[in-house]
Amino acid sequence: MEEEEECRVLSIQSHVVRGYVGNKAATFPLQVLGFEIDTVNSVQFSNHTGYDHWKGQVLNSNELHELYEGLKLNNVNHYDYVLTGYTRDKSFLAMVVDIVQELKQQNSNLVYVCDPVMGDKWSGEGCMYVPEDLFPVYKDNVVPVADIITPNQFEAELLTGRKIRSEKEAIEVMDMLHNMGPETVVITSSDLQAPSGNDYLIALGSQRRTTADGTIVTQRIRMESPKVDAVFVGTGDLFAAMLLAWTHKHPDNLKMACEKTVSAMQHVLQRTIKSAKAQAGEGNKPNSAQLELRMVQSKKDIENPEIIITATVL
Protein backbone atom coordinates (compact mmCIF):
# COMPACT_ATOMS: atom_id res chain seq x y z
CA MET A 1 0.00 0.00 0.00
CA GLU A 2 1.55 3.30 -1.04
CA GLU A 3 1.74 5.99 1.61
CA GLU A 4 -1.15 8.41 1.42
CA GLU A 5 -0.36 12.10 1.24
CA GLU A 6 -0.30 13.46 4.80
CA CYS A 7 -3.49 15.32 5.56
CA ARG A 8 -3.40 17.74 8.48
CA VAL A 9 -6.34 19.20 10.38
CA LEU A 10 -6.33 22.16 12.76
CA SER A 11 -9.24 21.66 15.16
CA ILE A 12 -10.23 24.55 17.44
CA GLN A 13 -12.77 23.19 19.94
CA SER A 14 -13.40 22.56 23.61
CA HIS A 15 -11.56 19.95 25.65
CA VAL A 16 -12.93 17.90 28.52
CA VAL A 17 -10.89 15.79 30.93
CA ARG A 18 -13.66 13.21 31.18
CA GLY A 19 -15.87 12.22 28.28
CA TYR A 20 -16.34 13.07 24.61
CA VAL A 21 -17.28 16.50 23.31
CA GLY A 22 -15.45 19.02 21.13
CA ASN A 23 -11.86 18.04 20.44
CA LYS A 24 -12.25 14.86 22.51
CA ALA A 25 -15.04 13.77 20.13
CA ALA A 26 -13.14 14.77 16.97
CA THR A 27 -9.55 13.67 17.63
CA PHE A 28 -9.87 9.91 17.97
CA PRO A 29 -12.08 9.40 14.87
CA LEU A 30 -9.85 11.57 12.69
CA GLN A 31 -6.70 9.79 13.88
CA VAL A 32 -8.29 6.38 13.33
CA LEU A 33 -9.19 7.50 9.80
CA GLY A 34 -5.58 8.46 9.08
CA PHE A 35 -5.51 12.23 9.62
CA GLU A 36 -2.93 14.24 11.52
CA ILE A 37 -4.94 16.43 13.88
CA ASP A 38 -3.55 19.44 15.73
CA THR A 39 -5.87 20.60 18.50
CA VAL A 40 -6.35 24.00 20.07
CA ASN A 41 -8.50 23.62 23.17
CA SER A 42 -10.83 26.61 23.39
CA VAL A 43 -11.74 25.56 26.93
CA GLN A 44 -10.47 22.94 29.33
CA PHE A 45 -13.29 21.67 31.52
CA SER A 46 -13.51 18.70 33.87
CA ASN A 47 -16.50 17.39 31.86
CA HIS A 48 -19.27 18.72 29.63
CA THR A 49 -21.67 21.26 31.10
CA GLY A 50 -24.66 18.90 31.02
CA TYR A 51 -23.41 17.31 34.27
CA ASP A 52 -24.49 18.67 37.68
CA HIS A 53 -21.01 20.13 38.22
CA TRP A 54 -18.18 21.28 36.01
CA LYS A 55 -15.00 23.27 36.50
CA GLY A 56 -12.24 24.58 34.29
CA GLN A 57 -10.60 27.28 32.24
CA VAL A 58 -11.44 29.23 29.11
CA LEU A 59 -8.92 30.25 26.42
CA ASN A 60 -9.31 33.85 25.29
CA SER A 61 -8.69 35.24 21.82
CA ASN A 62 -5.22 36.63 22.69
CA GLU A 63 -4.15 33.22 23.96
CA LEU A 64 -5.48 31.59 20.77
CA HIS A 65 -3.47 34.12 18.74
CA GLU A 66 -0.36 33.37 20.80
CA LEU A 67 -0.63 29.63 20.15
CA TYR A 68 -1.07 30.27 16.43
CA GLU A 69 1.95 32.62 16.42
CA GLY A 70 4.06 29.82 17.90
CA LEU A 71 3.11 27.52 15.02
CA LYS A 72 3.80 30.31 12.54
CA LEU A 73 7.26 31.13 13.94
CA ASN A 74 8.25 27.49 13.45
CA ASN A 75 6.73 27.49 9.96
CA VAL A 76 4.42 24.60 10.84
CA ASN A 77 1.16 26.49 10.26
CA HIS A 78 0.31 24.51 7.14
CA TYR A 79 -3.08 22.81 7.07
CA ASP A 80 -5.41 21.02 4.68
CA TYR A 81 -8.45 21.42 6.93
CA VAL A 82 -9.70 23.60 9.76
CA LEU A 83 -12.50 22.27 11.98
CA THR A 84 -14.50 24.35 14.47
CA GLY A 85 -17.58 23.80 16.62
CA TYR A 86 -19.12 25.32 19.72
CA THR A 87 -17.77 28.78 20.61
CA ARG A 88 -19.18 31.15 23.22
CA ASP A 89 -17.06 34.25 22.72
CA LYS A 90 -17.38 36.79 19.92
CA SER A 91 -13.74 37.96 19.86
CA PHE A 92 -12.54 34.34 19.93
CA LEU A 93 -14.72 33.54 16.92
CA ALA A 94 -13.42 36.62 15.08
CA MET A 95 -9.85 35.46 15.75
CA VAL A 96 -10.71 32.01 14.33
CA VAL A 97 -11.88 33.74 11.12
CA ASP A 98 -8.57 35.68 10.91
CA ILE A 99 -6.61 32.43 11.30
CA VAL A 100 -8.71 30.63 8.66
CA GLN A 101 -8.23 33.50 6.21
CA GLU A 102 -4.47 33.50 6.76
CA LEU A 103 -4.27 29.72 6.32
CA LYS A 104 -6.32 29.98 3.12
CA GLN A 105 -3.88 32.55 1.73
CA GLN A 106 -1.12 29.98 2.22
CA ASN A 107 -3.11 27.07 0.86
CA SER A 108 -5.92 27.94 -1.53
CA ASN A 109 -7.17 24.34 -1.31
CA LEU A 110 -7.71 24.52 2.46
CA VAL A 111 -11.16 23.31 3.45
CA TYR A 112 -12.84 24.90 6.46
CA VAL A 113 -15.43 22.65 8.11
CA CYS A 114 -17.65 24.65 10.43
CA ASP A 115 -20.42 23.52 12.71
CA PRO A 116 -22.19 26.86 13.32
CA VAL A 117 -23.38 25.99 16.83
CA MET A 118 -25.94 28.56 17.95
CA GLY A 119 -28.99 26.75 19.28
CA ASP A 120 -31.63 24.12 18.70
CA LYS A 121 -35.33 23.39 18.90
CA TRP A 122 -36.90 21.83 21.94
CA SER A 123 -40.50 20.69 21.53
CA GLY A 124 -40.86 22.94 18.50
CA GLU A 125 -39.47 26.10 20.10
CA GLY A 126 -36.12 27.45 18.87
CA CYS A 127 -33.68 28.63 21.51
CA MET A 128 -30.14 30.04 21.28
CA TYR A 129 -27.55 28.63 23.66
CA VAL A 130 -24.73 31.00 22.74
CA PRO A 131 -24.74 34.79 23.30
CA GLU A 132 -26.80 36.51 20.60
CA ASP A 133 -23.89 38.73 19.52
CA LEU A 134 -22.30 35.64 17.93
CA PHE A 135 -25.05 35.38 15.35
CA PRO A 136 -23.92 38.31 13.13
CA VAL A 137 -20.32 37.03 13.29
CA TYR A 138 -21.40 33.60 12.04
CA LYS A 139 -23.61 35.08 9.35
CA ASP A 140 -21.31 37.80 8.04
CA ASN A 141 -17.80 36.46 8.75
CA VAL A 142 -17.71 32.74 9.48
CA VAL A 143 -20.12 31.15 6.99
CA PRO A 144 -18.69 33.12 4.02
CA VAL A 145 -15.21 31.59 4.61
CA ALA A 146 -16.53 28.10 5.38
CA ASP A 147 -16.49 25.31 2.76
CA ILE A 148 -18.55 22.71 4.61
CA ILE A 149 -21.18 23.63 7.20
CA THR A 150 -23.28 21.34 9.40
CA PRO A 151 -26.12 23.40 10.92
CA ASN A 152 -29.21 21.84 12.45
CA GLN A 153 -32.58 23.03 11.15
CA PHE A 154 -32.84 25.87 13.69
CA GLU A 155 -29.35 27.17 12.77
CA ALA A 156 -30.05 26.90 9.03
CA GLU A 157 -33.27 28.88 9.51
CA LEU A 158 -31.47 31.46 11.64
CA LEU A 159 -28.67 32.00 9.11
CA THR A 160 -31.06 32.45 6.17
CA GLY A 161 -34.03 34.05 7.92
CA ARG A 162 -36.28 31.40 6.35
CA LYS A 163 -38.47 28.75 7.96
CA ILE A 164 -38.27 25.12 6.82
CA ARG A 165 -41.67 23.46 6.74
CA SER A 166 -41.16 21.12 3.79
CA GLU A 167 -38.40 19.42 1.87
CA LYS A 168 -38.80 21.99 -0.89
CA GLU A 169 -38.19 24.82 1.57
CA ALA A 170 -35.20 22.93 2.99
CA ILE A 171 -33.67 22.76 -0.49
CA GLU A 172 -34.26 26.51 -0.93
CA VAL A 173 -32.57 27.19 2.42
CA MET A 174 -29.59 24.99 1.46
CA ASP A 175 -29.29 26.90 -1.83
CA MET A 176 -29.31 30.19 0.10
CA LEU A 177 -26.55 28.84 2.32
CA HIS A 178 -24.52 27.85 -0.77
CA ASN A 179 -24.92 31.41 -2.02
CA MET A 180 -23.40 32.64 1.26
CA GLY A 181 -20.19 30.66 0.56
CA PRO A 182 -20.08 26.96 1.54
CA GLU A 183 -20.15 24.41 -1.26
CA THR A 184 -21.29 21.61 1.05
CA VAL A 185 -24.22 22.01 3.42
CA VAL A 186 -25.58 19.26 5.65
CA ILE A 187 -28.61 19.98 7.80
CA THR A 188 -27.83 17.43 10.48
CA SER A 189 -31.31 17.16 11.97
CA SER A 190 -34.73 18.53 11.15
CA ASP A 191 -38.28 18.10 12.35
CA LEU A 192 -39.56 17.35 8.86
CA GLN A 193 -41.89 14.37 8.58
CA ALA A 194 -39.90 11.29 7.61
CA PRO A 195 -41.45 9.00 4.97
CA SER A 196 -40.57 6.07 7.27
CA GLY A 197 -42.58 7.59 10.14
CA ASN A 198 -42.20 9.55 13.37
CA ASP A 199 -39.45 7.37 14.82
CA TYR A 200 -37.01 8.73 12.25
CA LEU A 201 -34.90 11.87 12.06
CA ILE A 202 -34.36 13.53 8.72
CA ALA A 203 -30.98 14.92 7.67
CA LEU A 204 -30.45 16.67 4.33
CA GLY A 205 -27.32 17.35 2.36
CA SER A 206 -26.42 19.48 -0.63
CA GLN A 207 -23.15 19.79 -2.51
CA ARG A 208 -22.60 22.40 -5.18
CA ARG A 209 -19.61 21.84 -7.43
CA THR A 210 -18.24 23.55 -10.50
CA THR A 211 -17.12 21.06 -13.15
CA ALA A 212 -14.09 21.50 -15.42
CA ASP A 213 -16.16 23.22 -18.12
CA GLY A 214 -17.66 25.67 -15.62
CA THR A 215 -21.07 24.04 -15.18
CA ILE A 216 -22.48 24.14 -11.66
CA VAL A 217 -23.73 20.75 -10.49
CA THR A 218 -25.70 20.27 -7.28
CA GLN A 219 -26.16 16.90 -5.61
CA ARG A 220 -28.85 16.73 -2.92
CA ILE A 221 -29.65 13.87 -0.59
CA ARG A 222 -31.97 12.93 2.24
CA MET A 223 -31.18 10.51 5.06
CA GLU A 224 -33.47 8.98 7.67
CA SER A 225 -32.01 7.69 10.93
CA PRO A 226 -33.95 5.91 13.65
CA LYS A 227 -34.38 8.20 16.67
CA VAL A 228 -32.49 7.06 19.75
CA ASP A 229 -34.36 7.90 22.94
CA ALA A 230 -31.70 9.72 24.97
CA VAL A 231 -29.88 13.03 25.09
CA PHE A 232 -26.33 12.55 23.88
CA VAL A 233 -23.65 15.22 24.05
CA GLY A 234 -20.84 15.42 21.49
CA THR A 235 -22.77 13.88 18.61
CA GLY A 236 -22.55 17.04 16.48
CA ASP A 237 -18.79 17.23 17.05
CA LEU A 238 -18.37 13.59 16.07
CA PHE A 239 -20.59 14.10 13.02
CA ALA A 240 -18.59 17.08 11.72
CA ALA A 241 -15.27 15.28 12.21
CA MET A 242 -16.43 12.15 10.37
CA LEU A 243 -18.01 14.21 7.60
CA LEU A 244 -14.66 15.96 7.14
CA ALA A 245 -12.94 12.58 6.83
CA TRP A 246 -15.45 10.95 4.51
CA THR A 247 -15.84 13.96 2.19
CA HIS A 248 -12.05 13.95 1.92
CA LYS A 249 -12.08 10.28 0.95
CA HIS A 250 -15.12 10.68 -1.38
CA PRO A 251 -14.79 14.27 -2.63
CA ASP A 252 -17.29 13.95 -5.47
CA ASN A 253 -19.77 11.70 -3.75
CA LEU A 254 -21.73 13.42 -0.99
CA LYS A 255 -24.12 10.46 -0.86
CA MET A 256 -21.37 8.00 0.06
CA ALA A 257 -19.68 10.42 2.50
CA CYS A 258 -22.98 11.02 4.32
CA GLU A 259 -23.95 7.34 4.37
CA LYS A 260 -20.65 6.43 6.02
CA THR A 261 -20.89 9.33 8.48
CA VAL A 262 -24.50 8.68 9.50
CA SER A 263 -24.05 4.90 9.61
CA ALA A 264 -20.99 5.22 11.87
CA MET A 265 -22.96 7.67 14.07
CA GLN A 266 -25.75 5.14 14.37
CA HIS A 267 -23.32 2.35 15.37
CA VAL A 268 -21.79 4.58 18.07
CA LEU A 269 -25.17 5.72 19.42
CA GLN A 270 -26.64 2.21 19.52
CA ARG A 271 -23.57 0.93 21.37
CA THR A 272 -23.72 3.88 23.76
CA ILE A 273 -27.41 3.57 24.63
CA LYS A 274 -27.15 -0.19 25.11
CA SER A 275 -24.21 0.19 27.44
CA ALA A 276 -25.75 3.17 29.31
CA LYS A 277 -28.97 1.26 29.97
CA ALA A 278 -27.02 -1.72 31.25
CA GLN A 279 -25.05 0.53 33.62
CA ALA A 280 -28.14 2.40 34.84
CA GLY A 281 -29.99 -0.84 35.54
CA GLU A 282 -33.55 -1.89 34.73
CA GLY A 283 -36.05 0.97 34.79
CA ASN A 284 -33.53 3.71 35.62
CA LYS A 285 -32.76 6.66 33.36
CA PRO A 286 -29.05 6.78 32.44
CA ASN A 287 -27.18 9.86 33.70
CA SER A 288 -24.70 12.10 31.84
CA ALA A 289 -21.68 10.00 32.83
CA GLN A 290 -23.33 6.80 31.64
CA LEU A 291 -24.35 8.40 28.33
CA GLU A 292 -20.83 9.44 27.30
CA LEU A 293 -20.22 8.22 23.75
CA ARG A 294 -18.59 4.78 23.50
CA MET A 295 -15.85 6.11 21.28
CA VAL A 296 -12.94 3.73 21.83
CA GLN A 297 -15.28 0.72 21.80
CA SER A 298 -16.53 1.87 18.36
CA LYS A 299 -13.10 2.06 16.74
CA LYS A 300 -13.89 -0.56 14.07
CA ASP A 301 -17.22 1.08 13.19
CA ILE A 302 -15.55 4.47 12.81
CA GLU A 303 -12.74 3.04 10.70
CA ASN A 304 -14.92 1.00 8.41
CA PRO A 305 -18.62 1.62 8.98
CA GLU A 306 -21.06 -0.97 7.75
CA ILE A 307 -23.63 1.06 5.79
CA ILE A 308 -26.88 0.68 7.72
CA ILE A 309 -28.43 3.97 6.55
CA THR A 310 -28.65 4.78 2.88
CA ALA A 311 -29.27 8.21 1.40
CA THR A 312 -31.96 9.04 -1.11
CA VAL A 313 -30.88 11.31 -3.96
CA LEU A 314 -33.33 14.19 -4.35
TrEMBL record:
GO cellular component: cytosol; nucleoplasm
EC numbers on record: 2.7.1.35
Superkingdom of this protein's organism: Eukaryota
Pathway terms, separated by semicolons: Cofactor metabolism; pyridoxal 5'-phosphate salvage; pyridoxal 5'-phosphate from pyridoxal: step 1/1; Cofactor metabolism; pyridoxal 5'-phosphate salvage; pyridoxamine 5'-phosphate from pyridoxamine: step 1/1; Cofactor metabolism; pyridoxal 5'-phosphate salvage; pyridoxine 5'-phosphate from pyridoxine: step 1/1
GO biological process: pyridoxal 5'-phosphate salvage; pyridoxal metabolic process; pyridoxamine metabolic process
Gene Ontology molecular function: any one: protein homodimerization activity
Cofactor: Mg(2+); Zn(2+)
One Pfam assignment: Phos_pyr_kin
InterPro entries assigned: PM/HMP-P_kinase-1, PyrdxlKinase, Ribokinase-like
Keyword NADP: no
Location relative to the cell: Cytoplasm, Cytosol
Pyridoxamine kinase/Phosphomethylpyrimidine kinase domain segment(s): 96-284
Catalytic reaction annotation: pyridoxine + ATP = pyridoxine 5'-phosphate + ADP + H(+); pyridoxal + ATP = pyridoxal 5'-phosphate + ADP + H(+); pyridoxamine + ATP = pyridoxamine 5'-phosphate + ADP + H(+)
Assigned keywords, A-Z: Acetylation, ATP-binding, Cytoplasm, Kinase, Magnesium, Metal-binding, Nucleotide-binding, Phosphoprotein, Sodium, Transferase
Enzyme class: transferase
Gene3D superfamilies for this protein: 3.40.1190.20
Main location: cytoplasm
Protein function: Catalyzes the phosphorylation of the dietary vitamin B6 vitamers pyridoxal (PL), pyridoxine (PN) and pyridoxamine (PM) to form pyridoxal 5'-phosphate (PLP), pyridoxine 5'-phosphate (PNP) and pyridoxamine 5'-phosphate (PMP), respectively. PLP is the active form of vitamin B6, and acts as a cofactor for over 140 different enzymatic reactions.
Similarity annotation: Belongs to the pyridoxine kinase family.
Xref: PANTHER family: PYRIDOXAL KINASE
Self-association and partners: Homodimer.
Protein name: Pyridoxal kinase
Species of provenance: Pseudonaja textilis
Taxonomic placement: Eukaryota, Metazoa, Chordata, Craniata, Vertebrata
